[in-house]
Amino acid sequence: LDAPLFADLAGDCQVSFEFFPPKTEKMEETLWNAIETLAPLNPRFVSVTYGAGGSTRERTHATVARITRETSIPAAAHLTCVDASRDEILEVAREYWAAGVRHIVALRGDPPRMGEKFVAHPDGFENAAALVAGLKSVAPFEISVAAYPECHPDSADLVADLDNLKRKIDAGANRAISQFFFSPEAFFRFRDAVEKAGIDAEIVPGILPVSNVAQTRKFAGMCGAAIPPWMDRLFEGLDDHPAARQLVAATIAAEMCRKLYAGGVRHFHFYTLNRAELSYAICHLLGLRPEQVAAERAA
Ligand code: FAD
Q1: How far, in Å, from the CA of 107 to the mean position of ligand 1?
Q2: Per the CB 3.0–4.6 Å rule, which of 5, 47, 196, 217 could disulfide with 76?
Q3: Which residues form a coiled coil (predicted)?
């Protein structure tokens, strides 16, 4: 694709940021620094993940409720089907609605122990599509679901994966956010397949700015994303050069976003890992500016 230069990007895209709930006071401080840094970029929404087996239920709730209370950014709560009955999950959803939270990222979730097969709770939701339908019965939530440009590992093939995505959208989801990937071509192929399958929903690419390849590889193995060999090559010899590693990380992710932009993408979802700087730098290269700077330029 003939991608435009960063200098030519108009800043006409939207972004959203994903965080995880902090475990300690120090982590809470890091998270809030990240939110305060990224908030002026006027994100479409921010979301907070839900740990395996509901282990972060209270912390996810507290974080989403605090963002809703203390900022004007729409906050989305991730919610999974793991180890909980339908009644328990729908009660959590009711609490979110009561706290003013209007957006849920609805997921099946991974088995609590790595490598095991997912088994639904005897009184639980069997998958994300069933959860979406359940949430819609509670309140008119805005709902995002997950999508997999390189196919979910539990799916027999891409057709089965697309059927599953269609069920989630048909059940009432508004959009899908993709698993991270490192090949824009893989994302475009997936987006074309989604359209061909008659699925009429926005597919937002999930962008993971990588600065630690070993850690990312461990995670990628579990979730159907491939780490291309060029990634190792680009980080080769940088273990003792953290600043250079950050610059390389931002460059790789920004280059991918530039290609996605050229292919028509106008909403990018960043897996921030609660650190603002990489995502901020990439948004800046995409032409985004804090509201105040943009207003001064327009004046
Ligand atoms: P589903 O859409 O239910 O699908 C899971 C698999 O089962 C697919 O392969 C699907 O094809 C298959 N399947 C489903 N129903 C059927 C059926 N009826 N017949 C045959 N096959 C079927 N995990 C967390 O624990 N917490 C989080 O906060 C979290 N956030 C995430 C955010 C994003 C944007 C993404 C992409 C993933 C996230 N995950 C999170 C990971 C996610 O929980 C896992 O990838 C999980 O394994 C699948 O969840 P899902 O919602 O995609 O499941």
Answers
A1: 5
A2: 47
A3: none
